[in-house]
Amino acid sequence: MAKLKKNKIKEMSLDEKMKKLEEYKSELAYQRSLLATGNTTDSPGKIGSLKKTIARLKTFINLDLREEQYM
Questions:
Q1: In angstroms, how far is CA 51 from the centroid of its own chain?
Q2: Which regions in the chain score pLDDT beneath 50?
Q3: CATH: 3.40.980.10, 3.40.630.10, 1.10.287.310, 1.20.1260.10. Which one for 13-70?
Q4: What is residue 2's three-state secondary structure?
Q5: In the chain, N or C terminus with fewer CB closer than 10 Å?
């Protein structure tokens, strides 16, 4: 999975962001399971990139939820 850019995330709806978050979480779990079983991943920096993308998605989801709360 490719890293999501800030502009792409802003264009998404809240539901799309939630779906992407679940996809990235499952991909992170898969990559971690590969490491736990002793296999190698495609790219050594992939786990770090996934974690950053998940954090970015969570940030924008929280911003959207706060906007809805105050409206």
A1: 7
A2: none
A3: 1.10.287.310
A4: coil
A5: C
